[in-house]
Known about the structure:
By secondary structure, this protein is an alpha/beta fold. It is 32% helix and 19% strand. It has eleven helices and 17 strands. The protein has an eleven-stranded mixed beta sheet with strand order 1-8-2-3-7-4-6-5-9-10-11, with helices on both faces. The radius of gyration is 20 Å and the shape is globular. Residues 152-153, 161 line the site of magnesium ion (MG).
Amino acid sequence: MAHNTTKMNKQTRVFKITSSNLSEVIRECADIIQRGGTVAIPTETVYGLGANALDPIAVNRIFYAKGRPADNPLIVHVASVQQLEELVLEIPPKALSLIEAFWPGPLTLILKRKGIVPDITTGGLDTVAVRMPSDIVARELIRVAGKPIAAPSANISGRPSPTNAAHVLYDLDGKIDAVIDAGNTCIGVESTVIDMSGEKPAILRPGYVSAKKIEEIIGEVEIGYNNHLTDPPGIVRSPGMKYTHYSPSATVMLLEGTQDHVSNKIREMYAELTCKGDRVGLLVTDMALSSLTNDIVYLGAKDEPEEVARNLFLGLRALDEKGVNIILADGSFTHEGVGTAVMNRLRKASEMIIQL
Ligand code: TXA
Ligand code: MG
């Protein structure tokens, strides 16, 4: 089938993976990739919008579908270290140690790129971000297509990242050629991004692989991302107001502090805001708050950051679909491990952070 590349609205094909059709789906989707099309693919972190990373016209379709600013570079996904070697000038020893420890998996390395990687893929930078996903569907697609696949999260720019095919279709139906539906992703937040191209390794985005685990392998790393917080308790207006990230349509207000303080403040704010006529949704770790409203999503236990990570983007989107205009988000869960990444995403999604 010749797929449509000129009209704005295309028919997005949905390939649902079953116990028997994996290789058939992979073959069809590899064909779309080879012909310069876009396929949303499951990975262990979030769904990505994939295209041939070495084909500038294909990569341009990703930017166009997402409405992504051209200076924001993409992550290139590979299925082997040999494929990585084709993209980068060198793999420094510490980068190799990280690859041995964490690939395939949710760790993205920034390395100096070769000329084969088009400018559009890297936003004109002389580096390229690369990771090898652990998800079998993603890796098989890359292997069968025989191309490295550029894939940013498969959402409209600024919205929460998608953790299932329904989220992808909600944002991108009619704008991409296909989506592979393999159910919910198992991690729920994006990969850790570490810059290995300079003198000192620097974490540019926290993710599933924590700084602590990375330091166990390569020693000290710099933290190269902004936490958007001031030290003393108070109200912080997020820079998310300038650049929106991970944002549902509703306004997110994040409450940080101990569970007791946060739960009490949520009750108080819920009462005040609903009294003024707002429809308020709750994203919480305290089950006891379910007496307040049905517009509530339970993130998980506050000492189980992996559970909270899986439910974060899912919860933001679910509350949006209920039609709330304000979301009170409970930030009292542990900030250890992947909790650091979850807090980073929640802070960026929030228009207001209240520290108690
Ligand atoms: O888990 C993930 O990483 C998901 C799945 C689909 O693999 N992908 C993802 O891609 O989150 P995206 O495009 O939403 O985020 C890529 C991040 C952006 O913050 C981008 O600025 C950064 O990586 N990045 C990409 N290339 C870079 C480079 N050469 N230098 C610095 N940052 C880079
Ligand atoms: Mg993204």
